């Protein structure tokens, strides 16, 4: 590792910066905690391919070297910029840890993100794939965001419409991919505690805890308990959460699957389509818990691929291809990867 200038290092291991725990190196590596720090780095390294990271919890390095500059976003901040008796608008720095942001909202009595407790990663990545869990998506509380336009060096503001949010989708994953660095996100949070416990397992967790009139803290704790019971902790087992999206299919496809599997879980979606549970399809196809020496499919949640120790990104990627091919052959359903492949 060579020390190049104030903030940029050369040939650094990216293993500590991805929750899959994949060993890969990058030509250059740095961190920035303000736009003033970011601008000169981008000018100096303008010829390099750029990868901006938050917590590295939704990426898989498939090559053992990233030939370019990796920058970790560490812009901090939690500021209430507007407050009425009904709502508060909070501006959060993109480099804030998501779960810490959620806890601060709860402490302040701001309602809306408690169902998204314990999702790893940063505030800045939350709009990237419109993070979601337990009946809530970030778009439900999103006000606007500010992002650094790499080509011009200008800060641009994006409204909810501009972000084109969808299920695990935004404009930043599609037509504006790699063009912006999100610097801050503004959320509109309710001050009336109208909690959302519509997702079945939250209800049952609250009943188990004997809670009948849940507060936002109760809901957050229930979500944390549920997540801990089935999702592997990246500190112990390398993973990036759901590796695949839940597929959205036609009712005809659902009917075909129902012929052999009358109880296939399915949920209403838009345009007369239905969402299937990818975890269920992968489990039925026989992959749940399958292990190949030091990587495989998690034993409690078939949607999560895991690196127990020392797997390469290519091994994990090739496993995902085998699963996609098998699910297609057995159910006629195309699975799409959720994790960003680098
Ligand atoms: P990173 O992995 O660092 O980056 C992800 C992508 O966003 C990359 O393409 C990166 O270049 C880009 N990016 C990151 N920050 C910026 C920025 N500031 N500006 C521009 N581009 C940026 N996700 C869910 O939606 N719901 C869940 O319930 C959920 N559960 C998970 C559970 C576990 C155990 C794990 C490991 C992951 C889970 N995830 C879940 C996935 C992941 O936590 C989220 O996608 C999270 O938002 C990723 O944040 P990050 O900061 O780690 O992003
Ligand atoms: N299922 C199985 N086998 C499995 C896993 C799930 O049969 O191995 C079935 C469950 O029994 C249930 C259904 O699939 O009937 C849904 O399971 P679960 O509630 O666990 O949710 P999921 O669809 O597997 C999604 C998100 C998660 C999010 C949870 C909770 C996607 C791709 N994944 O998982 O998000 O936390 O719902 O809302 O939408 C992530 O994106 O990384 C992530 C973890």
Question: Can you describe what's shown?
Answer:
With 342 residues, this protein is an alpha+beta fold. The chain has three domains: 9-73, Uridine Diphospho-n-acetylenolpyruvylglucosamine Reductase, domain 2, CATH 3.30.43.10; 78-190, Uridine Diphospho-n-acetylenolpyruvylglucosamine Reductase, domain 3, CATH 3.30.465; 238-341, Alpha-Beta Complex (Uridine Diphospho-n-acetylenolpyruvylglucosamine Reductase, domain 1), CATH 3.90.78.10. Helices cover 25% and strands 29% of the residues. It has a five-stranded mixed β-sheet with strand order 1-2-3-6-4. The chain has a five-stranded antiparallel β-sheet with strand order 7-8-13-11-12. Strand 19 and strand 20 form a beta hairpin. Helix 4 crosses helix 5. It starts with a strand and ends with a strand. Residues 1-5 have low confidence and may be disordered. Flavin-adenine dinucleotide is lined by residues 19, 51-59, 73, 94, 119-122, 124-126, 128-129, 131-133, 181-182, 231, 234, 239-241, 340.
């Amino acid at each position: 590792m060579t020390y190049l200038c104030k903030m940029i290092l050369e040939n650094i291991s990216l293993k500590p910066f991805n929750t899959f725990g994949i060993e890969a190196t990058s030509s250059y590596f740095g961190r920035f905690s303000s736009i003033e720090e970011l601008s000169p780095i981008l000018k100096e390294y303008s010829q390099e391919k750029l990868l901006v990271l938050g917590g590295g919890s939704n990426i898989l390095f498939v090559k053992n070297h990233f030939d370019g500059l990796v920058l970790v976003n560490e812009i901090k901040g939690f500021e209430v910029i507007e407050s009425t008796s009904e709502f508060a608008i909070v501006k959060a720095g993109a480099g804030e840890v998501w779960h810490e942001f959620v806890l601060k909202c709860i402490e302040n009595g701001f309602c809306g993100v408690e169902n998204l407790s314990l999702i790893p990663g940063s505030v800045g990545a939350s709009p990237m794939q419109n993070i979601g869990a337990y009946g809530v998506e970030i778009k439900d509380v999103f006000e606007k965001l500010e992002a650094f336009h790499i080509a011009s060096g200008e800060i641009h503001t994006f409204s909810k419409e501009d972000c084109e949010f969808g299920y695990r989708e935004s404009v930043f994953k599609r037509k504006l991919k790699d063009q912006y660095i999100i610097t801050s996100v503004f959320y509109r949070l309710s001050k009336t505690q109208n909690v959302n416990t519509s997702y079945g397992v939250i209800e049952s967790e609250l009943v188990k805890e004997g809670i009948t009139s849940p507060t936002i803290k109760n809901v957050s704790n229930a979500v944390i308990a549920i997540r801990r019971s089935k999702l592997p902790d990246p500190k112990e087992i390398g993973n990036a959460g759901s590796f695949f999206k839940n597929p959205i299919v036609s009712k005809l496809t659902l009917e075909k699957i129902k012929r052999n599997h009358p109880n296939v879980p399915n949920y209403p979606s838009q345009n007369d389509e239905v969402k299937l549970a990818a975890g269920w399809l992968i489990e039925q196809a026989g992959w749940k818990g399958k292990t190949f020496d030091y990587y495989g499919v998690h034993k409690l949640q078939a949607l999560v691929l895991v690196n127990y120790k020392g797997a390469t990104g290519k091994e994990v990627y090739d496993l995902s291809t085998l699963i996609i091919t098998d699910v297609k052959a057995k159910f006629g359903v195309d699975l799409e990867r959720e994790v960003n492949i680098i």
